[in-house]
Specification:
There is one protein chain. The chain is mainly α and 422 residues long. It is 86% helix and 0% strand. It has helices at residues 5-10, 13-44, 46-67, 70-75, 84-109, 113-140, 145-170, 173-198, 208-217, 219-242, 245-269, 273-282, 284-321, 329-354, 359-415. 50% of the residues are buried.
């Protein structure tokens, strides 16, 4: 019997090492936002916590501008038309744009100096993460995803230490957010950059033609990524417009489990990027099976999360945040279900991006984002937090349905030999 090279790749010690460290690092990193909000609520009060929750979510939206086409696009690039150095230069420009857009956003919304400063500091914090994504792509293409996981672990560790200590001593969110920037910078200088040197990476002179080519090539990935993070945060923007910081805090608390679950789809797929890339070229039926299995694994995990939330969700969240949430069990379950749908969509999106089908994804996200934009304020005004959760749930369900249809169509095109890259 002929051995499957893809299966052999999964069975190697290197794959297991990469998978374990990526799971540890990205889990710790993705849970930092949960602990940040928990600490801000307990140390600074529910009003300031609402400002922090909104500012962090806003920084995550601008992060998509900074990361632009993303690590997945860089890793799965088989054309070799663009060097890793070109990706770095493009990332520097996109991060500059990220900060400029954040400035314009704050001025247009008319925020006071306190809220403005927190948003800008957290945007700077996320811009450093965006730059790191190019570093991670370089080392991951050399089969060292474990180093990515270790970097995430260190950033999570030092960010939490700096945040908790400084905020406990000063109760000053501005100074605390500045310390987050310092913690991330330290890990980049003393861990990420040495990993680049080990990979023999050299930053060459910028080639503006290639940077512009990359900007055009990655636009569709950027477009649907930006709309995706907008969908996640659309209810928060509606709350910011028509409700209070206290309600923002409550929504942020019950949305936090779903946010972490949605991110689960992103980091569970990372160890399989090279496998997807290989199987797409060498064993397309395995490519389809792997995509389906990962999607179903997230669905099963979502069911477990729903059951856990039903029995333990509210008591655990009240214990962690010190806020009364007894009336919000149903909204919590609604938003966790929506988070499951989004995480499943992330897996299918990664496979479609590997196939270089990106334009249709942008169309799908645009349709769903248009729905969220036109209904979010109405739902929040009419039903408060429950309305916000319903907008999230319906948006994510619609997105998943569209993604399933897109994946079925693209696999059909491959089977009949009519698939082509964007």
């Amino acid at each position: 019997m002929t051995k499957n090279p893809v299966n052999n790749q999964i069975a190697t010690p290197a794959f297991r090492r990469n998978f374990i460290w990526n799971l540890i690092g990205t889990t710790c990193w993705n849970f930092t936002s949960l602990f940040f909000l928990m600490l801000a609520t307990r140390l600074n009060g529910i009003d300031d916590a609402g400002i922090f929750s909104f500012a962090f979510s806003t920084a995550c939206v601008f992060y998509v501008i900074g990361v632009y086409s993303g690590r997945t696009f860089q890793i799965t690039d088989t054309t070799k038309e663009i060097s890793d150095s070109d990706y770095f230069h493009a990332r520097f420009w996109s991060c500059a744009a990220m900060l400029i857009f954040a400035l314009f956003f704050c001025f247009l919304r008319g925020y006071d100096a306190y809220k403005f400063t927190i948003i800008m500091l957290l945007t700077l914090y996320k811009s450093l993460e965006a730059i790191s994504e190019s570093t991670y792509a370089v080392v991951q293409k050399r089969e060292r995803l474990d180093q990515v996981g270790k970097s995430f672990f260190l950033k999570a560790l030092f960010s939490l230490i700096f945040f908790s200590v400084i905020d406990a001593l000063t109760h000053n969110l501005v100074l605390t957010c500045a310390m987050l920037v310092l913690a991330s910078t330290a890990v980049i200088l003393f861990y990420d950059i040495p990993r680049l040197r080990e990979a023999h990476f050299q930053l060459e002179k910028p080639n503006l033609k290639k940077v512009w080519f990359l900007t055009r090539k990655g636009f569709f990935v950027f477009g649907f990524s930006f709309l995706g993070i907008y969908l996640i945060n659309a209810p928060k923007y509606a709350i910011d417009s028509v409700s209070t910081n206290e309600i923002q805090t409550v929504y942020g608390i019950i949305a936090m489990p779903a946010t972490v679950l949605a991110l689960f789809g992103q980091y569970i797929i990372q160890p399989f990027l090279m496998t997807l890339k290989t199987s797409l070229r060498q064993n397309f039926p395995h490519f389809i099976r792997l995509t389906i299995r990962l999607t179903l694994a997230i669905f099963a995990f979502g069911i477990i999360c729903l059951l856990a939330a039903w029995f333990l969700g509210i008591p655990v969240l009240e214990l962690l945040y010190g806020v009364s949430l007894g009336d919000y069990l149903i909204p919590l379950l609604i938003i966790i279900a929506g988070g499951t749908f989004y995480a499943m969509s992330v897996v299918i999106s990664t496979s479609l991006t590997t196939m270089r089908d990106t334009a249709s994804q942008l169309i799908a996200f645009f349709i769903v984002a248009l729905f969220a934009f036109s209904t979010a304020r109405l739902f929040v005004s009419a039903q408060g937090i429950t309305g916000a959760c319903l907008v999230y749930f319906v948006s994510m369900l619609a997105l998943l349905i569209l993604y399933i249809l897109l994946f079925a169509y693209q696999t059909y095109l491959v089977r009949i030999g009519k698939h082509h890259d964007d």
